[in-house]
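Table 4 source record.
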Amino acid sequence: MADLNQPTAENLAVLIEGIKARLNMANTAVMRPEDFDLTHYDDLLYLYNMVQKKTAFGINEMTAIVEELGAMRKKK
């Protein structure tokens, strides 16, 4: 496994894909690794580690996580 402490594009993709998989997101196309940049890497790593440790998510937690991810997306 890659050292996720290194902010690279490849690791960013691992974080995003891992978060999507763990949350069982229905529409995964709305959250693509290319929609994020490395300026939010530390925040994404924190979120990734938190999500990986939890066994279940309440609706309020899911909403908060998705909103946080939305705030980190690149502005178009």
